[in-house]
Amino acid sequence: MTLFIQLRLKRFFNIVNAFNAELLFDPTNHDFGSQFAVRNQLAFAAFKAKGAIRAGLVSAVVGIDLIMDNGYQTISGIALKVGGVTEQVQVEANAALVETRSAGVGSVIDNQRVLELPLNGRQVTELIFLSGMATQVNGAGLNSGVRNFPTVDISVAGGLSNGLTFRLDGATHNDPYNNLNLPLPFPDVLQEFKVETSALPAQYGHHSSAAINAVTKSGTNEFHGDVFEFIRNGAVNARNTFSSTVDSLKRNQFGGAVGGPIRRNKLFFYLGEQTTLQRTAPATSIGFVPTPAMLQGDFTAITSAACNTSGRAVTLKAPFVNNKISPALFSTPAINILKLSGFPSTTDPCGQVSFGRRTASNQFDSLARIDYQATDKHSMFFRYLQAKLDQPSDHDPKNLLAGSTANLNFRTQSLVFGDTYLIGAGTVSSFHATINRSAVPKTNPQVFSPSSVGIRIWDGVPGLTRIAITNGFNIASNNETPSTYNTTNFELTEDISLVRGSHQIGFGVDFIREYLNANSGLNASGPFTFNGQVTGLGLADFMVGLPSAFTQATQTVAYDRHNYLGMYLQDAYRFSPRLTVTVGVRYDPYLPVTTKYGWLSHFDRQLFTQGAKSAIYAKAPAGLIFPGDAAYPGDG
Q1: Strand-strand pairing, 352-373 and 249-263
Q2: Consecutive H or E run containing 512
Q3: Backbone φ and ψ of 357, nearest 5°
């Protein structure tokens, strides 16, 4: 049987036909008189072609005898036709917006993975842990959550948590207060994310641990965007195996992003907003308050073994006998506190009361970006980022023991201008101007002042009295004291990148001016501590008005100023496709911290012994001197 196939032939080629066979032959053989082989998954066969064909790229009808190992096979009704061969070149480029050629160790996370990865709370900082070199740590009080916008302490490759360089759109994104990160954008407006550590290039000399680079999205010639809502609710979650109750967290995150052209090929915009509403059912807390029997002077029940966690009875110290105290010895301020509206009462013989502390927060994240393509060689952008956190105090007027936190109304803002210019073949200039501002106020709820209940001290923080009783109850806490930590920093950077043969050279300069304006009422609030060292029982110490500790001072203020300057030169030289050597040098001079009013005190023991006082601040204690005093170290 003869099988006819119409083919468009090249000089040498392979054809895969309908039999899943590979036909191998040379079309320059004009007489086609020889046999040639074809491999098939089912059998080995041989073809014998009949006829002639011109050399070159032609169309031809070829008669072929199909000779199988088991003899000739009859194939009928089959006409195989190969259409015209076309050549198509398709180029796909997802250019990395963050430079990946570096001696450092790290990885780039693109937008698709940023959106698809299950980030806890949609916090972009979770991406840092994907580097495999990062872990969460306790940063020695750097991340108090009340002096800075809440974030996490992260150590990369064993480095310090405040040793990370955060760059957003090429600009600094570190908090001047603690060197941790300012709030990062939410995933939908983030284009790319990179973590780099180990042998960092000289460009990242500001911090030693690692460099975190993030880039926000830009608009294009097409309108694009999305809307989203993520809900987490314990009502639809399974109970943890090791928990007696289901998760009570209720978190609702919703928002959207949109980008597109303002003027095609020239001016583009991108906008995004995310709202996060979070609520948590109050956890049950336990306290112990004076009972009616204690108010009558009878402490026998509260001092029994049944009412003490140690399982042992307590005996009040002398001069008290039989665990009884005369009500005439009770402190007037203590009685006044127990009479306040909202102070709980109990019928429990041990004085136990239960209460809950509510937890709620609302966070709003916004981003706006404008990109301008001036020419093929010149582009610019403006980017504005804002994060706002509102978290009300857990103070409950119906229960004075519930209050432990202040009202938080935090806000951070970041504005960046970027300018990229192609100076010439292989030479690019990148300039950035940045301003970051954080307002972190903490205000205490108005409950009662020490003087309002008869405590004769200065009301350092009006409306706030702090009391801590061992194995008793607490009123307020250090997290309820007022404070303000406002920071501002300005940055100007210029980076030049040159490609000269096998050299990739970079050099630039970075200048940052930082401001911290802070005040805290922590020490001014005057906390009282009753630990039982006087009578043997904390509640008894409170009732007789004998604290074990009391401290009070004026408000703490800080008006610090700091300049940072860095310059670098680096070169990545490619010796061969398998060897690249990166060298660099960076100059970071030490510039001391200054204060707005020169409030830098120095204590001199010899001056203290002599009773000498400062001429600048005459009311300062002896031995404490300030800039401007003759004995002040240095240039005064």
Answers
A1: unpaired
A2: strand 503-520
A3: -115, 120
Q: Look at residues 366, 368, 370 and name the one whose alpha carbon lies nearest to residue 386.
A: 366
Which among 217, 220, 222 is positioned nearest to 272, based on CA atoms?
217
- Asked whether 295 and 343 are in contact (CB, 8 A), the reply is no
Higher pLDDT pick, 382 / 555 = 382
What whole-number distance in Å separates Cα of residue 560 and Cα of residue 177?
10
Distance, in Å, from the CA atom of 367 to the CA atom of 385, rounded to the nearest integer, reads 5
Give yes or no for residue 374 having a pLDDT over 50.
yes
Helix (H) or strand (E) holding 337: helix 332-338
Measure the CA–CA gap between 523 and 550, rounded to whole angstroms.
10
User: Which residue is associated with the tokens 């660099």?
Assistant: 584
pLDDT, tens digit (0-9, with 9 covering 90-100), for 138-159: 765 677 777 888 888 888 888 8
Segment (H or E) for 543: helix 538-544
pTM attached to this predicted model: 0.77
DSSP string, 378-420: EEEEEEEEEEEEEE----BTTBTTS----EEEEEEEEEEEEEE
Of 631, 595, 594, 626, residue with least CA distance to 610: 631
Which candidate, 432, 575, 558, 582, places its Cα nearest to that of 494? 432
168: amino acid identity, one letter:
L
Sorted by sequence, the CB contacts under 8 Å of residue 503 that are 6+ apart come out as 571, 572, 573, 574
Q: For residue 239, with 0-12 CB atoms within 10 Å meaning exposed, 13-18 middle and 19 or more buried, which class applies?
A: exposed
Point out which residues pair with 353 in neighbouring strands.
287
What are the backbone angles phi and psi of residue 609, rounded to the nearest 5°? Answer: -65, -35
Dist. CA 325–CA 539, nearest whole Å: 12
Backbone torsion region of residue 221, taken as left when φ is above 0, otherwise alpha when ψ lies between -120 and 50, otherwise beta: alpha
pLDDT recorded at residue 104: 64
How does strand 407-424 pair with strand 474-475?
Answer: unpaired
- Residue 493, C-beta contacts closer than 8 angstroms, at least 6 positions apart: 170, 171, 430, 431, 432, 434, 508, 509, 510, 511
Distance set, CA 630 to CA 591, 623, 636 (Å):
24, 13, 7
The C-alpha R_g of the chain, in whole angstroms, comes to 38
**30/27 Cα distance (integer angstroms):** 7
